[in-house]
Amino acid sequence: MTSPSDQASARRVIQLPLDPGLICLKGLSPTRLRFEVEYGLERGTTANSFLFPAIPLLIHPPGTSFAEPFLAQLASLVPADAALKVVVGDVNPNRVGLLRQLASHWPHTLLVCSNAGAKVLEELWDQQKPGQPGDPPPAAAPPLPPIDVVKQEVSRRLSDGHVMRLIPTPTPRWPAGLMAFEESTGLLMSGKFFAAHLCSESFAETNRSSTEEDRRYFYDCLMAPMARQVESVVERLEELDIRTIAPGHGPAISESWRSLLNDYHRWGASQERARLSVALLFASAYGNTAAIADALAQGVGRTGVRVESINCEFTPPEQLLAAIRSCDAILIGSPTLGGHAPTPIVSALGTVLAEGDRSKPVGVFGSFGWSGEALDLLESKLRDGGFRFGFEPIKVKFSPDAATLKAIEETGTGLGRQLLAEQRKAQRRSASGGLSESRSNPAVQALGRVVGSLCVLTTCKGEGASRLSGAMVASWVSQASFSPPGFTVAVAKDRAVEALLHTGDRFALNVLAAGRETGPMKQFLQPFTPGADRFAGLELDSTPGGQPILPEGLAWLEATVQQRMECGDHWLVYAQVSHGGVLDGNGTTAVHQRRSGANY
Fold first, then answer.
1. Of 42, 46, 97, 434, which sees the most CB atoms within 10 A?
2. Which residues pair with 438 in a beta bridge?
3. What is the CA radius of gyration of the chain?
4. Are 455 and 365 in contact (CB under 8 A)?
5. Where are the domain boundaries for CATH 3.40.50.360 in the chain?
6. Is the peptide bond before 251 cis (omega within 30 degrees of 0)?
7. Which CATH number fits domain 443-592: 1.10.10.10, 3.40.50.11540, 2.30.110.10, 3.40.50.720?
8. Looking at the domain 4-128+140-270, which fold is it?
9. Could you give the CA distance from residue 364 to residue 329 in angstroms, rounded to a whole number?
10. Contact 175, 120 (CB under 8 A)
11. What does the pLDDT profile of the chain (600 residues) look like in tens digits?
């Protein structure tokens, strides 16, 4: 496993001239920076900043992860006595840490941010993240630089002739969002929007297909829970004369940006069509509670249930009330600050207690440092108020690691399945009886006669604390190519293992033997608690690539995911075979006979 010091040494910042008087300072990290869900593909990342050195104007500085190489590059371009202007498109503790260093190196710095950004800056500037016992006290922060507050969209002509349009883009996850659009070049510096965690030295992507999966993954992790607000932002951006979109992470989009805007519309529309919804209320001091919220949202979203993300610090009371009244479940998350919950969370809790429907499930989540009084408060008030919990409270000390986030995702998926089951039960009660229309449809009955071999898909990824594993019974499997040898397997979107089957991931397909399929089926069809080890107590062999093999199987194949295609409620995964073996030359393949194509 790569150590934090090795990861830090692998980070660097390069200069990419884009236009006379405009430079991209591109931070490169080939390894995963944090254990947040959007880094799950583990393809590294970039942190893209933009500098107009003649002014000098810096747009979207990175966080402290890139501080040393970034500040070194910036110092080679901007004198220490310059009046540096800094547009801050996202304000969080990591970003504030670098801004403090900027203010120390360039004492005449002026910060430019949105109204919400100014509020968060003022709150976080002198705050220090809790350290471990015995740690030396942190150095005092320099004085907060003056702040130029952008309260509404505005265009400003720069001294070198460029024209900069500043566009506030607040969302629940990033209430301080601020985009910058340079009108003469058509360059939209979009911050978190349209991003992808992908390490590449090139400024722009080579083609749409090279980054499509990564951008969709980023959207599903962070944008989907606030699809309505994202849609409003995208509609505004379509009015701009864009030529290139340069997000804060990943390569820029110069040829296919119109297609990407259409993708955002299409992905958001699928969220809005969902009949069930979960209200996700949260506040986050250091980003840890927000990371838990992201994981829960992604897990719920896998089931097709819509998530409405609500940052209680920046959401109007009427919007909060409407979400609480209209949702099918309420999740509320909080950090513990000085032994208490933040005031906006206490206020939101009061609204839930007064207006929430006791027949609908609730959940509590959050992170804490040395105590968790805020989470205890939320839990006790909701239990005393007669609410039923959809899952046990999620309480994470400091930052959640990869395994914890995977378990939290599975908790969200479990809640989504619970809501869908309750919906189906209610529909059956209201129906007149008899077979459902889909089950009695002759075409659906005919579809059920398509026979598939019974297999168990197994996979593991990562090492040490970041090691993740998963498995599922698969019967929708088919050979897809001779040269190279390959096959397809359909994976339901709400399967926990789906997150481990992205392009480049390896897995094993264990073909089961007729007459000996009962044991493996019983093992892998049982319900697992979130985060449970699917292989606990099993004796396994391994493929050359380290993927789990079931010794009682008929045959095995090791394969690498090459492509994924979205097919309704499933992903169709095409994988190329690298190794394989027959374990029983006299056995026959177990097959799955169905009466209906409406279920497995």
1. 46
2. none
3. 26
4. no
5. 274-418
6. no
7. 2.30.110.10
8. Metallo-beta-lactamase; Chain A (3.60.15)
9. 11
10. yes
11. 455 455 556 899 999 999 999 999 999 999 877 778 999 899 999 999 999 999 999 999 999 999 999 999 999 999 999 999 999 999 999 999 999 999 999 999 999 999 999 999 999 999 876 655 666 777 788 999 999 999 999 999 998 889 999 999 999 999 999 999 999 999 999 999 999 999 999 999 999 999 999 999 999 999 999 999 999 999 999 999 999 999 999 999 999 999 999 999 999 998 888 999 999 999 998 889 999 999 999 999 999 999 999 999 999 999 999 999 999 999 999 999 888 999 999 999 999 999 999 999 999 999 998 788 999 999 999 999 999 999 999 999 989 999 999 999 999 999 999 999 999 888 877 765 444 556 678 998 999 999 999 999 999 998 887 889 999 999 999 999 999 999 999 999 999 999 999 999 999 999 999 999 999 999 999 999 999 999 999 999 999 999 999 999 999 999 999 999 999 999 999 999 999 999 999 999 999 999 888 888
Instruction: Single out the residue of 172, 155, 161, 171 nearest to residue 240, CA to CA.
Output: 155
| Cα separation, 597 vs 422, whole angstroms | 22
CB 31 within 8 A of CB 19: no
Question: Two tokens at 524?
Answer: 């892998």
State both tokens at 238.
């379509």
Give me the residue label for tokens 């990371």.
291
C-beta of residue 474 within 8 angstroms of C-beta of residue 524: no
Q: pTM for the complete prediction? A: 0.92
Start-to-end Cα distance in the chain: 39
Judge contact between 541 and 549, C-beta under 8 A: yes
Report which secondary-structure segment, H or E, holds 559.
strand 555-567
In the structure encoding, which two tokens stand for residue 258, read together? 């119109």
Q: Quick one: fold of 274-418?
A: Rossmann fold (3.40.50)
Structure tokens given for 559: 């394969």
Q: What is the C-alpha to C-alpha distance for residues 86 and 96, in angstroms, rounded to an integer?
A: 12
Angle at 585 between CA 583 and CA 586, to 5 degrees: 125
Torsion angle, alpha carbons of 400, 394, 333, 355, to 10: 170
Tokens coding 558:
């090791």
> Which residue is it, tokens 């046990």?
392
Residues carrying CATH 3.60.15.10, the chain:
4-128+140-270
Cβ atoms 590, 451 nearer than 8 A: no
Q: Residue 506's beta-bridge partner residues?
A: 560
Q: φ, ψ for residue 58 (rounded to 5)? A: -110, 130
Q: Which residue ranges does the chain devote to CATH 2.30.110.10?
A: 443-592
Q: Do residues 591 and 455 lie in contact, with contact meaning Cβ atoms separated by under 8 Å?
A: no
Give whole-number Cα distances, 61 to 13, 86, 94, 111, 203, in Å: 12, 8, 11, 11, 16
* Location of structure tokens 């394969």: 559
